[in-house]
Design goal:
This protein has 175 residues and is mainly alpha-helical. The protein is built from ten helices and no strands. InterPro entries: Imm5-like (IPR048667).
């Protein structure tokens, strides 16, 4: 039985486009540090291609860790969070809950950016919510509340704490 965090293929395609939008908003934070490293940009492009039906789930499952390796190579906290946002967007092909991970890491990247306002993460979540159309909002609303289903990224790991957990809770409360 698949996890409730997986979502249907159609719903994963919907939320992949939104996750790519969230990740692309912070891509410059990664590229400022590593302008030659295309892995996060490629991950976002793959998420968009998956959303359009141009890529299949199996192929994207094999490729979903590439941008995560870019995060390990980054040195600044905003660049790491931006690369992780892209990695989460690419992983939506595997499990829809990664869309919330992409949004949360984007909020974290914004909050960690130089000269960030104290409310930067909350403002980023507000922008992310404004990007949602009704179909994508409905698909995201199918995901279990953070921490309720341990079989996926919304389980008991990194996404449940700090800025990441706060961002996901805020998103889920307002869906």
């Amino acid at each position: 039985m698949p996890s409730s965090q997986t979502l249907s293929l159609a719903d994963r395609r919907l939320v992949a486009a939104w996750a790519a939008d969230c990740a692309s908003r912070v891509l410059a934070l990664f590229e400022a540090e590593a302008p030659q490293d295309q892995r996060p940009r490629d991950a976002i492009a793959r998420a968009r291609a998956f959303a359009r039906g141009e890529l299949d789930t199996a192929g994207e499952i094999r490729n979903r860790f590439v941008a995560g390796r870019a995060a390990r190579d980054a040195t600044s906290a905003p660049a790491i969070a931006a690369a992780r946002s892209a990695a989460q967007a690419a992983a939506v092909a595997h499990m829809g809950a990664h869309a919330l991970g992409a949004a949360a890491y984007a909020a974290q990247a914004v909050a960690l950016a130089p000269n960030a306002a104290p409310t930067a993460a909350e403002e980023e979540v507000d922008r992310q919510l404004a990007l949602l159309d009704e179909q994508t909002r409905a698909a995201l609303a199918l995901l279990p509340p953070l921490g309720e289903d341990r079989a996926g990224p919304l389980g008991s790991g990194l996404l449940t704490t700090g800025v990441l957990g706060d961002a996901i809770r805020r998103l889920q409360e307002r869906l």
